[in-house]
Design goal:
It is a single chain. This protein has 112 residues and is mainly alpha-helical. Belongs to the SecG family. It is a multi-pass membrane protein. Pfam families: SecG. InterPro entries: SecG.
């Protein structure tokens, strides 16, 4: 089970890094990656395609991450399989012995 979990974690990390790169390449004002390749005009060849690709890639990677997380929970987090607990140590201390009660009165020594 740990190899499946590791595989899912690696795929989630790769998808997350790609999502960050795609988001950072976009510009909310419409420039973004398409603006660095020859201007900010939307009439330039390929600019609209670049924006469509970036938007589709963002949604696809976001959905992929959510699906991978849900699959990793479903496949690796079965409630019937519990991890072995740490056994509690058994106390091996002996009970404390109490001193016997002294019923005889204390004798005073004579002062010199």
């Amino acid at each position: 089970m740990s190899t499946i979990f590791t595989l899912f974690m690696i795929l989630i990390i790769i998808a997350s890094i790609l999502l960050v790169i795609i988001i950072m390449a976009q510009n909310p004002k419409g420039g973004g990656l398409s603006g660095t390749f020859g201007g900010t005009s939307s009439a330039t060849f390929g600019v609209q395609r670049t924006n469509d690709f970036m938007e589709k890639a963002t949604w696809t990677l976001g959905t992929t991450i959510v699906v991978l997380i849900l699959l990793s929970i479903i496949l690796t987090g079965k409630p019937s399989q519990t991890a072995p607990g740490i056994p509690t140590p058994v106390k091996t201390e002996a009970p404390v012995k109490q001193a016997p009660a002294n019923n005889t009165p204390a004798t005073q020594t004579p002062a010199k």
